Structure formats: C-alpha cells, structure tokens
User: Fold this.
Amino acid sequence: MYYYQRLRDLREDKDKTQADIAKLLGISRQHYSLYEKGERELPMHHFITLAKFYGVTLDYLAGIIQKPEKLYR
Assistant:
C-alpha cells in the first residue's frame, strides 16, 4: 500500500476531514489533498506529526509494514 492511501484511510478512521488534518499541519486543505492523491511528496516533519497524531509508527504510516503498531509513550 502506498503511503498516500494510508493517509486517507487513517483520516477517515478518525472521522476527520482533509481540512482538519490540513489545520493540524498548518497548510491549506488543497495542499493536503495533493498528499492524499500522491501528487506531492509528504515532508518528513509532516510524517512525524501525523504518526504522532494517529498514534502509529512511521513504518506503518509509510506503508512499509501492514499491521498498525502503536507508538510507545
């Protein structure tokens, strides 16, 4: 699975809109939409923010592993 598909799945699982996540990242909804479509690469600092927000590892968010491992805090 590509990471941009996972971005959408995680967002929808949390019942969040693209506008909600864009606000979290400090960008426009249109800009965030490009990440979910795979039309723009997600910067590492956004990957980290989203992994923390969703409570998953970077490996899961990036699509490297298929089982969602929780972050250890």
User: Anything to note?
Assistant: The chain has one domain: 3-61. Residues 44 and 58 are 10 Å apart (CA to CA).
